[in-house]
Amino acid sequence: MLSGDYTTNKWAADSIGQELFRRHSQNVGDSISGGTKGEYNQSDNYSEGWSEQKDYKVDIVQFTTLQTGGPRGQCQVGYIYWQSGRVLKNGDVFVRSTIKQKCRGVCGARWERHCPFVPKVGSKEKGGGIRLYWYDWLTFTGFIVCSALFSAGLYLIFAEKDILLLPIPEIGIITLATVFLWFAGFALDTLWASFAILLEVGWYAIRKKHRHKCKIINRVPLIVITWLYLGFTLALAIYLQQSIYMQQSLFPTIGLWLTASIAHRLFKSAGGRKIPAD
User: Is the pTM of this model over 0.70?
Assistant: First the structure.
């Protein structure tokens, strides 16, 4: 049961004993170096390792964090059971568990009340539910802005208010609407990222676990693929604009654009590695 006496907790921890634990460590870093001609190099560093250290099987602080029952204790009373010279069924000399209570409302109602979430001892869980970070909101904002710019490009074309920027012989023309239509590539990319975020948030909410803040380390080939994708989407924007002017079917261009955006998203997922940052 819960004990606030340090001497008692120290005696219990010493009695249960110590064992070797494997400690995990990781280091994440990145660096950018630039030159006089505008060139830059980016490198990401990630290392991890393991070390063995001897420590208490049951840390002293665990005796002070046992659940005390009632609504704040999730209607459970925690305990640590140990008996000298006896190996329990779990293969260890101690077991940590709880005794379930029948929590009732303050008014004395017969129905059990819904107790608030209590984090697990030794974990960084902060409860389930939705947890969005600044980069998630940046992704959502990017999708909205890029979609608005794409819509502005369509408006310029159908309202006949387009502005010529650059003619390209034997290919087509680049107008202000072409630039706006080009943002459809960014809109689709952020759309798939938004779907991934919402699915991840929903999955953590169902499991009632905390969604950790993560950092993604990109590999060098991903940068090349992204530039190829941007160039290809610019060509698709020019072709889409010509199809609208010539009143041709837009479905082949739209299908090709969707396929290219999904392929780019899959390459980004394969080329990046998520590292917990908190």
Answer: no
